[in-house]
Specification:
9-stranded mixed beta sheet; alpha/beta; two-stranded antiparallel sheet
Length: 354
């Protein structure tokens, strides 16, 4: 079989009755939000606009409180804005606002994606309290009166990061996965570069959220099952709308006899429903997300969301001539190629070595 298909109905089967009730409540609140959108779009009255803006703020605050309460009960869901100190929240909020903004162009969007994954890495790894440290001794450009060196102390998290494999759900996840791998390399005392496993998976966008299908194309995927066994599998996808792509890939690996030590999913924005589906469907899985959004629309897009993150990172492909992975990497340009040269070498070996 060259294609693996998972249906939305299968995903919903993992949700508890309490999950479904919470999702229904969030949908009801967001319907009120959309009513405010309509008023703000059409009203000419300054006083009415101010009143509706305040109502919108209160609704968003209420949704935020409810999502925080839900996630507090779920050990597998880690939301940056729910877990970090209050003084850290403006940085995340401003970053998400820039990513959402329709005026944020491609290069600027990539810049903020890079910042987002630095923050997510810190949430999962570098922010943890560890008693032991590693020391980095670096050679500086200063040679007078003698060659200078600097000593820098970093947390010793080698045991947490040097068993990892980067699992890429092409294609919107390609650059975020490279960024995450680079963070691991920078925090490793051995400059560990993650192996890569590449999975060609897409959802059938002709369908709606309630009957969506997720299709894993094995012929266009590149991975070695043996190299995934007993590893910490990392997935870095900027958006987790439904959780369907991740669950499809991981369930396939489990069916093939792969027994990962852990599964970790890193998102810039996750929908509440997608996060709940993932932790319900997969054992020993943790979701790390910078921001949580409340609902999905009928097309399974996150609301308020930020559009198609893959297209905003990579640009759109023509239907007749979609780029393959090597063409996509070439289009990133020399700046990305130079910054992530170790990661690109691993990806090239993975694709061309089969």
């Amino acid at each position: 079989m060259n294609k693996i298909v998972l249906k939305a109905q299968d995903l919903d089967g993992f949700l508890t009755e309490n999950d479904k009730e919470n999702i229904t409540k969030m949908d009801a609140l967001y319907r009120q939000v959309m009513l405010s959108f309509s008023i703000l779009t059409t009203t000419q009255s300054a006083s009415e606009r101010a009143r509706e803006e305040q109502n919108l703020i209160e609704l968003y605050n209420e949704m935020g409180r409810k999502m925080q309460e839900i996630c507090k009960e779920e050990q597998g869901i880690h939301v940056y804005s729910f877990l970090t100190p209050q003084e850290s929240h403006p940085e995340a909020s401003r970053l998400i606002a820039k990513l959402r903004d329709v005026r944020t162009g491609g290069q600027e969007f990539v810049y903020y994606i890079q910042r987002a994954y630095e923050m997510l890495f810190k949430l999962a790894y570098a922010g943890t309290q560890v008693s032991s440290k590693n020391y980095l001794i670096v050679k500086t450009p200063v040679t007078v009166p003698v060659q200078n060196y600097a000593v820098h102390k970093i947390p010793n998290i080698d045991d947490k990061i040097e068993n990892t494999v980067m699992c890429v759900m092409l294609r919107g996840a390609l650059l975020p996965s490279m960024i995450m791998s680079k963070e691991i390399q920078e925090y490793s005392s051995h400059s560990y570069v993650t192996p890569f496993a590449l999975f060609k998976i897409k959802r059938d966008d002709t369908k709606h959220e309630n009957d969506m299908e997720y299709i894993l194309d094995l012929e266009k995927s590149y991975f070695d099952l043996e190299k995934l066994n007993d590893k910490d599998l990392i997935f870095a996808d900027p958006m987790n709308a439904t959780g369907g792509s991740l669950v499809t890939v991981v369930k396939y690996l489990l069916d093939q006899g792969v027994k990962p030590r852990s599964v970790q999913f890193f998102n810039v924005i996750s929908a509440l429903k997608g996060a709940l589906r993932v932790v319900r469907a997969l054992d020993n899985c943790k979701v790390y997300t910078l921001w949580m959004d409340p609902v999905l629309n009928e097309a399974a897009y996150i609301l308020p969301g930020l559009g198609d993150a893959g297209d905003r990172i990579n640009g759109k492909d023509g239907e007749e001539h979609p780029r393959n992975i090597m063409q996509l990497i070439a289009d990133y340009g020399s700046n990305i190629a130079n910054l992530y040269r170790s990661q690109l070498r691993e990806i090239e070996d993975t694709v061309l070595g089969q």
